[in-house]
Each structure stands twice: as C-alpha cells, then as structure tokens.
Design goal:
CATH superfamily of one domain: FAD/NAD(P)-binding domain
Helix content: 25-40%
Structural class: alpha+beta
Number of strands: 24
Largest sheet: 9 strands, mixed
Strand content: 25-35%
Bound molecules: flavin-adenine dinucleotide
CATH topology of one domain: FAD/NAD(P)-binding domain
Shape: globular
Radius of gyration: 23 Å
Amino acid sequence: MDRRSFLKVGGGLIFLAACRNSTPQKEWEKSRKIPIFVDSNRKVGHQVRTAISLPVSSTETIDTLIVGGGIAGLAAACSLPSDNYVVCELDTNFGGTSGAISINNQLYSQGAHYDLAYPNHYGKDGLELLQKLNIIDFNAKSKLWEFKDKEYLIPAGLEEACYYNGNKRESVLENTELRQNFVALLKEYEGQFTLPSTLISKELHHLDQLTFYDYLNKYLPIDDKFMESIDYQMLDDWGGTSTQVSALAGIHYYKSRPYYDGKEIELLSPPQGNFYFIQKMMQQLNPNQLKSNHLVFGLIKEKDHWLVDVYDNENSTRKQYKANQVIYAGQKHALKYIHPESYASFSDIQYAPWVVMNIEMEECSLKDSKWQNDFLSPDNTFLGFVDSTIQTKNQPRVLTAYFCFPEVHHYQIENLEEDANELVEETIEKISQYYDENIRPFVKQVHIKLMGHAMPIPSPNYITKERTLVKDGLAFAGVDSGRFPLMFDAMDSGIQAAKALFDE
Ligand SMILES: Cc1cc2nc3c(=O)[nH]c(=O)nc-3n(C[C@H](O)[C@H](O)[C@H](O)COP(=O)(O)OP(=O)(O)OC[C@H]3O[C@@H](n4cnc5c(N)ncnc54)[C@H](O)[C@@H]3O)c2cc1C
C-alpha cells in the first residue's frame, strides 16, 4: 500500500529486536463476544430475481445514465457536458472500493485509502479534473502536482513499519545486494511509466506479455526471501503475486513516480481514505441526480435509446429509464446478466476478492504505530493494518485491517457473511503480536466490508488487450475496463467514457 519508502536506499535499515512473547489471552476475555457487523452488497445483487418479476412503477427519459457510483462513475458525471444525467449506485453509500464508514460521526476508510502527488507527465485530463475539484496545485520546485489539504498528508517517518515473521523492520524489501541490483535493473525505466495506463508507450507493451516473476527470474539471481517481499507488494496493490501479474504492472508499481531521486513525495491519506475524492466529486454534482440503492439489472438497446431496468432497493420498486447514452462503470463480471452482448470484451478479467476490517477501539494506552503497518507471515491473505491515530486525533481509534484472498477462494468471502468470528479473532491475535500486547480487551466492535470482485488483477495481456469500450451510445469505465486498479486510472476511465460518448 505504501510505495513511497521503497527506494530510500542507504541510511541503513534498522532491525528491531525480535521480542514476540504475545500475551496469552485470558479465557474470560475470549468469552466476551465482540460485536461484529458485516456489510456485503452480494445480497443486493441477488435481488435481481425479485426485481425482474415486478411491474414497472415509473419511466423517465434522460440524456445519460451512469451505472455505478465509484470513482469512475462519479468522474464520468463530473465530465459530462450536459446536466441531464442520473447516477445509479446499488449500495446505500457511494464510493465503491473507495468507500468509507461513519463511526462516532467520523468517517473511516473501507477500501482505497491513499494517493501520492502526481508527476507532471501524468495525463492532462485527470490532472485538470483534480484541479477543478480543488484537490491539487502544481509545485514548480518539486515539479509535482501536490495536495492542497496539507492536514491530510502523512508526516515523513510515520508512513510505514513492517512486521516480518516475528521481527520488525523498516521496509518490506530488505536492503540487500539483490535489492540494489533490482533497483539498478529498473533504472532504465525512469520517467517512462505514467498514468493513466492508456498513455504508457507502446514500446513498453512487450512487458505485458510475460509475468513479473519471469521478468525478474530472467535478469536477477532471485531467491525465495526476495520474492516473498515482492509478492507481498504485488498482492498489496495489484491483488495478485508476481506469478500472476504482468511485468508491465510489476515495473509500474516501482517506477510510476519519481521515487528514485530521494525526493519526498506527498502521501495523502485522510481518515476517510479515498472517499475524500468521492466527497469532492459529489460536491460538484446535483444530489437529486445521485440515486443510491438503485441496482441496474438490465440494459436493452431500443431504436434510438437505451432502456435501463433499475431496482430501487429502498422502496422495493422497479423503474425504467430511457437514456440516449449509458456509461457502465460497475463491475464487468455482472455484464453476463445485465448486457450479455458486451461481456465478451471483459470475460478474461480475473478479480481479487478483498476484505476490509475496521476495528473500533476503546480509549487505551496502546503504543503508537505507523500509519501503515505491513504484515508478512505465512498467512499471506492478511496484509496488515492502518492506524487512524496517525490521520486524526478524533476518537475512536480505528485499526483498519486489509485482506486479499486468492481469486479461487470466493466461497471464503461468502462464508464470512454468515460467520466472521474466526477471522476477527485471528486478526486480533496478529495485531496483538504486532504491538506485543493483547489488544482484545480494548476492542469495542468490528465492522467488516466484503468485496467479492474488488479489483481486476493486471495479469499478462490485461492492459494491452483490445476491448470495445464504446459502441452505440454505451461506454465502459472503471478500473476493470483494462486499467490498473488505481484512483487515477479509475478517474481517467470515467472522463474518457464521457468524452467518447460525445465524440461518437
Ligand atoms: C481494498 C482496496 C484498497 C485499495 N486501495 C487503493 C489505494 O490506496 N489507492 C488507489 O489509488 N487505489 C486503491 N484501490 C483501487 C480502487 O479500486 C480504485 O482506486 C477505485 O476506487 C476503483 O473505482 P471504480 O469506480 O473503477 O470501481 P468501484 O469502486 O468498484 O465502483 C463500482 C461501483 O459500481 C457499483 N455497481 C456495480 N454494479 C452495479 C449495478 N449493476 N448497478 C448499480 N451500481 C453498480 C458498485 O456498487 C460500486 O460502487 C484499492 C482497491 C481495494 C479493493
């Protein structure tokens, strides 16, 4: 999750002594049941069956209908030339994988939670939208587009700590000779990797034909320990290990920003995470046109318009919109049901399921940690946690844990809907190991967000595959339209979908 300290070579890494006598939990403590709240939108999706049999309660004619209220859908709405649009979001809240939860009137991230200042060679359209949203300014000295709201920057030195099989160390990749060779190997790509991914030069596209593992294995004497750290970082950002993601994605992770010249790059992480960007976009839009609890379950092309079938989950009614144009910024795997004709363009996409766990703490004297606390252990589904005290002094303190499951383990996510107790207990134990202190007595309650199709894995050929992204007034946006699972790519996909429709 934090790339910023990756290339701070030199300065010597500090290894903190291994001192792992995690306090055994007393039985009476374990018997206190921790309240757990699980949020999953899978069940809303399944309401389609009910919706189909309902009579249509209303029909409205509009210019553009946008499916999905994540970063991509809202960026599309911000980029439309006409005000005559509606955004349908199936969830009660907007945000998608950049969503947030309100605890004690303070918002906490439930997904994407940071971004870094943007180099000047990033795409003009995205940078312009971020300026329009009053989020960034150009700093001529650093030559970076930096964030205006400085209170949300994570102070240098507090960004990251890493727990590795019982030891603490400064960063995920150890400062070994192999790492230095790795840094030297990637040097030729300096300044060449940009965002959005559509602007990556064709000369680099051959890197999308092989896995990151094969690329590294070709040029470096890699060993298991080195690859364990690389795999952790790949899972953390791309949802797949080095044997799953392309060399293009792997190298992009390390070279998409100027980490290499020792520059401090601003890292923005408000307590609400990237829901901050969602809020900024929603402030630009008319709230009456943003429809939450609205599940789009059918798209039919009629003569000169699209007939869009929508289930209003709050009122249990079925509505229809006649729209001149549609921007589909929802997950593409559902096209199988919603618009099967378009599914072929996206059928290759593999999705990584993610789980986010917000652990709400009682006031306690738990030691300080860093903003992001990476956790490497034989259980590679648990990636670590973010400590809200670095972001805000507001109570309650919330430790937000992140899990990425292998694609084939979707059923594990479904099981969590019924019983998440074991995962919660295991997580509390791991975080207790991290603090070297039993945190369980201070855990007030736990909120879990399950995201079955959270993130497209940028496997070989994913980025460079030809896809039909606009046809007959229907345009596709979202990270899973052949983009990297990153805020900037999601946002750009929305902007380009809006533009494509009006250029069509
Ligand atoms: C755990 C996690 C952490 C991440 N961390 C970062 C990070 O720190 N920084 C970063 O840059 N990126 C991060 N990402 C990547 C993140 O996915 C993108 O940054 C971005 O949020 C994706 O936005 P999107 O609009 O493309 O997709 P989504 O966020 O998936 O939005 C799609 C929306 O469409 C809605 N929808 C789907 N189908 C329908 C339908 N039929 N009808 C109505 N609505 C529908 C969904 O409910 C959802 O709200 C993270 C992703 C995950 C999963």
